[in-house]
Amino acid sequence: MKDTLRWAYALNQWNIRMDVFVRHEDQRRALKTCSALGFHHVELAAGTGRWDNLGRPEVIELNHGGPAGFLDFLHGCSVHGVSSMYWDPGQPAEEEGWAFRSTRNRDDHAAIVESAKPFADFLAAIGTEQLVVRPAGSAWLQPPLGADDVKTIGEVWNAVGKVAAAAGVGVALHYDCLSAVHSADEVGQLLAATDPALVGFALDTAELTIGGIDPVAFYAGHADRVTHVHLKDTRYADTGEEYRMPGAETTMLRGGAGRRIERWFFELGTEGGLVDVKAFVATLREHDYPGWVVVESDHGGNPAELAMLNSWYLQHELGVAKS
Amino acid sequence: MTRAADERRIKWSYMDHWRSNGPAGPIDQWHSHRSMSSFLKQIKAVGFDAMDTFDFRLWQMYGDYGGPAKYQEMVQDHGLERIVNIFHAADYDVRNYAPHLPETHENILEDFRVTMGHWSSIELDNIIVMPATLYYDMEPITEDKLKITAELWNKVGEITAGYGVRLTCHHEFFCGIQSEPDIETFYSYTDPEYVSLFVDTAQHCIASVDPVALYRRHAHRVSGFHFKDTRNIATGDDHRHRPDSEIMAPTTGKWFYEMGTPNGLVDFTAMMTAVRDNEYQGWITVEHDKANRYGGDYAESTAVARWHAVNVLEKIYR
Amino acid sequence: MAWTKWSYMDHWVTETPQGPQPPSFNRDHMDRYVKQLSALGFRGFDTFFFYLPILAGLYGSVKAFEEYLQDNGFDKITGIFSAYPYATEYTAPHVSETHDRIVADCQATIRAVEGLSVENFIVMPSTTYFQVEPVTDEKIKIMADLWNRVGRLTLEHGMRTTCHFEFWGAIRTREQLDLFFSYTDPQYVYFFCDTAQHTIAGVDPIQMFRDYRDRCTGFHFKDTHTVDTHEAYRTPPDPELMAPQVTRWFHEMGTDGGLVDFPALIREIVTSGYDGWLTVEHDKAELDGGSYAEATCVAKWYIDNVLAEAQALADQGAAR
Fold first, then answer.
1. Low-confidence residues in chain B, pLDDT < 50
2. Would you identify the CATH topology of the domain B82-313?
3. What ipTM score was computed for the predicted complex, to two decimals?
4. Exposed site from A129, B83, B142, C254, fewest CB < 10 Å?
C-alpha cells in the first residue's frame, strides 16, 4: 500500500486449526495473496509444535535454516518482511513443557521473560519491530483483579519490554475482549503501570468495540501509547458481561451459549459493522501514527476472500493506493 | 498500478468463474446482488481492470439487474472498466446446431442475429465461441467438415462485425478442432477479417499444441487470451468422453490451474515474451475454471494468478 | 453375525461460520457430530487426550459427555489417544530423563477418565524419526522401559497401554517393531494395528496382527495409496503434512488405489477369535476437498457391504 500509514496483514486467519497451513506451498499462496492485494508485510502469530511452523523461532529455523532463509522465503513471494508477531505467554507451549503461566503471578515472571527472549531475538534478526502480546489471561479463568494485580502485570511487561528493547524490538500490549484487564479504566491502569519507553499498546478496533470501549475515543486519548494497531470490524458488542461466561472462548466467541453468536469478527466494510473504520483511520492520520496498521480478519471464513474485501475497502473506501 | 491506465499496452480482465461458500452451501456470484458485489470488489481489489462473462448470464442480467447495460453499470460502480468479452457457450447438437453440418447453419446464424441484438447495449471486444461440436460428434474430422465449419464462422463473423464485435474462436481440447493440423486447416479457410483466434493457453497445451508457437504463427489475428495453466496433457481418448471430457476424462480429474501453479505445463514467460514481440495491445483474460476442485479456492487462485501477472509477466511486458 | 463393535476415531472437521473447525467448536456442533456418527451405527468413540478438558467444558464432565454418547446409541468412550509426536527437552520417550514427566502426564489423562470404562490407552511410542535418529537398540529399549512403566499404571485403572506406530516414528521397520516388543512386557504393553501407517512404512499390517495377535487390542482401519519409498519419514519437522512427494497419505476404506487388503484383514481377525473393538479412522480426510462426513459414510458403507461379506465367509469357514 502506498500511504503514509504502514499497512500489514495478519496471517492468523489462514492458520485456523492445528493441522492446516503447514505445507510451504500453502503458506506461499497466502503470502502471494497478501502481496497481490498490496500488503507487503505480514504479522505472524506464535504457536507450538511441528505443525505451527511459522509460530516459533526454532521451528522456523527447522523449516528455513534461520532468519536469512526465512526472509528469502518471504521475498520469494514479494513479501518484504514481518511487521509484528503476536505472542500469548499464557498459552502453554509444548516446547516449554506445556507450562501454565500467568502474568498475574510474580512466581511466573522470570519464566515469562525468559521465554520472550528467543522471540525478541528472532524478530530482531528478521527486522521486525513489534512483539504484540496478550497482557493477561481470560477474565473467566481468574478472580476479579485485586488492588495489586495490575501493578504485578505491569512489572512483567516492563521486564519483557526491557529484554525486547535490548534486542531492538518494541512490546505492545494487545487488548482482547475476554481479557481480565477489561474496562477502559483497567486498561488505563495497566498503561500507567508500564514504562512508556518500553511498553506500548496494541489497539484492536474490533476487540475494543466488543469490550464496550470506543476505539476512536480511546486512540485519541492514548495516542502517545498506541504503538500497534489491529484493524478489523465486528457486528456485536458484549452486552451483558458475556466475557465472564465459563469457557468464554467457546461459549461467547463461538456461540456455544448465551446469544449463540457463532462469528464475531468481520472484514472492513461489513454490513452492520460497529467499528467506525473511516473515523478511526482519520484519527490515526491526525496524530501521524507511526506504527503498523495490521488488517486482520481473525477467524471469519475464507481467508483469501476476506483479504480481498479488506484490500478493496482500503483502496476504495479509505482511498489508499495499492503499491 | 502507478501508471495511468492508458499508458499500459496490456489490461487484465477476469473470466467470471467463481464459487464461494454461502450459509446454505457453495454459491456462485450470481446468487444475489450481495454476492455479486462481493465478487466484483475482490476482482477489483486484486488489480483486474475488467471482466468477461458468459452469454448464458444474459437472463440473470435482465432479471436481476435490468439488462446488460444496467449490469455493466454495477460492474463500473465497483471500479472495473466494463465487460470486455462474452463467451457464447452454445449447446451443440447434431440435430440442429452443429457447425460442420450445413443444414444447421441457418439456425446458428439466426441465433447470432438474436444474440448480438441482446448484447448491443454494451461495447464488447469479442464474442468467443468454441468453433466445433464436441469431438465425438464431429469425428472423423475431415477437410471437408473443416471447410464447412469455416464457412459458417465467416458468415457469423460478418454478423458480429456489423455490431462492432469480433468473432473469435477458442479451441477446447475436446472439441472437433483441437489438433494442430486441424486448427491450421480451419484458419486457412476462414477470413481473417471475420474470424479471429482466441488463445487459451491451457486448452492448447492439453491438446499437445504449443500455445506460444500457435500464437506466434497467428498473432495478426489473435484477439484475446485465456491465461490459465494445466498440469496434464490429454492422452488416449481423453478428448472424446461423453458427455464432457473436461469432467469425465479418465486420466485427469482437474485439468485447470491458475497461472503460477507448481508443475504447470504452460510457459507463461515465453507466452508473454511472444505477446511483447508481436506488440499486442489490448486485453489478456485470466481464467481458471473449476479452481475449486480438490479443495481449491477461487479467491486464492485468483490472487495467486494476479501475483504472477504482476511479479513475473508485467516485468516482461505491460 | 455382523461385527457390531465399531468405534470412530475423532478427527472430524466441520463447516462453521469461522471456517472449517473440529466439532468441539461449540456444544451444538459437538451434539450434531455425535448424532451423525450414531446414525451410521458406530457404538464406540475414541478421542485424543487433549480433547478431554474441552469435552468436560462442553458437557460438564467427561462422564456427562459419555452419557450423551450413550443417549445416542453409543456404548461408551472406547479409547484415548495420547502422544508425544514432537520431542522437546521436557518430553521425549527415547530420553529417560523425561520419563517422569511423561508418566505424570499419563496420570493426568488417567484421572480425566477415572470411573469410565475406557479400554485402550493408545500411545505413539516414539517421536518423529528425525529427532531420534540414529535409532539404536538402546533408544528402543529406553522407549520400551517407559511404556512398560505406563502400561503397569494404566492397567491398574482398567486400561491397556497399546502402541500405535506411525510411519514417521522412530519404531517403524519390522525389525524395530520386533525389537521394541521384545523389550516390552506382554502383560503391560499391547499392540494397536494402524493398517495405513504400517503399509506406508513397508510393513504388512496383516502379518503384524498375525504375529502379535495375543497382544493386539485394537485397529485403525484406514487406507493409503502410497508406500514411502523416498525416505519421506525423515522429513523435518513433519513428514505427515510436509513430505515433498506426498500431500495426502491417508484415505478412508474403499477408495480406488487403496493398498490395504481389508477383506483379508477381517478374515484374519475373525479366524483369530479377536473380539475387541475395530476403529475407523481417516485423519486429514478434508485434504483435496474431501469431507469427513462423506468419508465416514463411505467407510461405513464399505464395512456394511464389503467387510460384512468377507466376515460372513470367514464365519462360515470358522464354523466348519
1. 1-3
2. TIM Barrel (3.20.20)
3. 0.87
4. B142
